Amino acid sequence: MTDNRPFSSRIVDGPEQAPSRAMLYAVGFKEADFNKPQIGIASTWSMVTPCNMHINELADAAAMGADEAGAKAVVFNTITVSDGISMGTPGMRYSLVSREVIADSIETVVGAQGFDGFVAIGGCDKNMPACAMAMARLNRPSIFVYGGTILPGKEHRDVVSVFEAVGAHAAGTLSDIELKEIESTAIPGPGSCAGMYTANTMASAIEALGLSLANSSALNAVSDAKRKDSYNAGAAVFNLIERGIKPSDILCREAFENAITVVIALEGSTNAVLHLLAIANAADVPLELDDFTHVGLRVPVLADMRPSGQYSMSDLIDVGGIQPLMKILLDEGLLHGDCLTVTGRTVAENLASVDPYPAEPQVIRPLSNPIKKDSHLVVLYGNLAPEGAVAKITGHEGLSFAGHAKCFQGEEAAMRAILDGRVSKGDVLIVRYEGPRGGPGMREMLSITSAINGLGLAQDVALITDGRFSGGSHGFVVGHVTPEAFDGGPIALLEDGDAITVDSVKREVTVELSDEQLTERRARWRQPAPYATKGVLAKYAKLVSTASEGAVTDN
Fold it and tell me: Which active-site residues does the annotation give?
């Protein structure tokens, strides 16, 4: 027989649940609390990274909002890891893996404890989509709160400034003292990396999906507005419980098209492709790699934001955040206005009273003068990526690149070659065995792209990998190559000197080899031993799907 009682009632009602109530008294429950909806507060607080070091305060604010609305809040923690700290090291293998671990852990706690709804608060790249994946899986009234962006450092620096300084130092154009000064002044305090990198991209995408309160994505981490946003989220979940609104009422095909549209307009990270595919998978909403192309053909790039542009998220906040941008897109017919959101209102209703940007803000271009008339996220196919690859081509680096392969097995070998001066104009760096299974974990290549940029080679060197890129990467870069090298994809068969062409107009990435030549090389190829045979990396490698399917373990 189906139990239709509220989830928390199954935990605390009746004589047989006296042991549960006894334990809850010990953690602060009062007798009256057993008659209230229970709202979990999933906090990703950690001193591992500045992105999350303040989230305990936001969790407390969300709990207060839930309690004062008439619920009983319960705060619990999950993990986070830092991409910025682990970048360029073996530790980066755990980054994408942590997305699955975090989603699993939130699902586990909410399911075990019988929460009627929850607030999920994330601040770093992978815990944000993980929160949304857990919301979709659990399908209980829930809201995502973004921890907020960091303020720029001295001279408008951020973490990418430091990565690029490493390349300049290797080129001899930056002294030891100058490098030290940059590293010690780039990151002034709490919050996520300052440009339109993955954290700010995903915060904006999740808001566009309808899973966050209005403008949650565009608030500074250290601000009264962010604390109020967290408080309001706690209260809003109580409202969702009362009205019976769940993620399945919000996460439809059109909501994902809205998210893709906003990501493109903001010139967001390639990681958004991977993460939106994963969230859609969790929500059982059909979404494919080619959908990013279909949407991208009609959506222009409007935000002049780092890494390719000039401005940081705090600059966008100063002129009004993403809500005025969404209003522009809605008025142009580029957003689905009838999609429901966690406010209980539709996208169009949320945007009805939004004020426009100040006259022609530099950070957001008008539709009549876009940075690029269509998407910078270019899905490529060809004999080098039969199942797809994703490039971030803004136009700054040109629309095509032709050169000759220089092949590396793993990121470290490529980085050594760059810093040792063994990379030249016209090279196409092939960094392979970094895919979801082969890495495992699909490491980001920010160290490599930043070193290339720091050396002044951004216009002259391309990079192709079955790994992925940080939102801070820019230049002629192609990632998510599928099939990956570990599975015997064509990227595994390349040799130094092979002629490679990347053409964003034709949407192709190709190698000048015949089918017969590829077949002959494949016959000689042997799969390498896996990087890990036990533990979380080994489990992940056995379960994970391809990058073109979101690199999920919940298939």
Answer: 470
